[in-house]
Amino acid sequence: MRRLISTLLLGFSILWIAACTSSPQKPSTTPLPAEQVKKLKSMQLKSSLPIPVQHVKAKQLKDTWGASRSSGRTHEGIDIMAPRGTKVFSATEGLIADLRNNNLGGKVVWIMGPGGSWHYYAHLDEHKRGLSVGDYVKKGDLIGYVGNTGNARHTAPHLHYGIYLDGKGRGVVNPYPYLR
Ligand SMILES: [Zn+2]
């Protein structure tokens, strides 16, 4: 009898797990407004972009592209050093596409910009208050504040800025030449 009960329980657990894993996955991000996505795709990313951190001048920038990182990774972006709380501005117009924290980047902002480009702003201390997925930002709009969240927690506060030309996380290029 006891064996029957435990067999039944095991059977139910397997069914329950199967039911959970086969349920449709929630979309990872809120769908973006189609009109604005279309408009952005028809535009071109400029070859020169404003430095996305307040008060930082081009001559202060260091090209940190390709520097080695933990677990054999190389650095996919530029680190722009600035005091904690310094304002971070969008380098392009675009749609706020993702605001979820991740282990490496900490508090981040993903922006879908012109011509299929995506822009990644990481290690933020805070997002701009009220910023939401689907918001349309102009070049130079405030999106957050410099910090050292994520894997930067043992380093000085800085903005990690990444540019991807072929969609989210795809077609990474060095942002440094864009910021001269
Ligand atoms: Zn970085």
Automatic annotation (TrEMBL):
Can you say what this protein is called?
L-Ala--D-Glu endopeptidase
Against InterPro entries, the record matches this protein to:
Cell_wall_metabolism_enzyme (IPR050570), Dup_hybrid_motif (IPR011055), M23ase_b-sheet_dom (IPR016047)
Q: Does the keyword Zinc-finger apply?
A: no
Q: What region holds the M23ase beta-sheet core domain?
A: 74-168
* Source organism: Acinetobacter bouvetii
Report the leader peptide range.
Answer: 1-18
Keywords from the named record: Hydrolase, Signal
What domain of life does the UniProt record list for this protein's source?
Answer: Bacteria
This protein's record includes keyword Signal: yes
- Its top-level enzyme class, in one word, is hydrolase
Give the enzyme's EC designation. Answer: 3.4.-.-
Q: Which GO terms describe its molecular function?
A: metalloendopeptidase activity
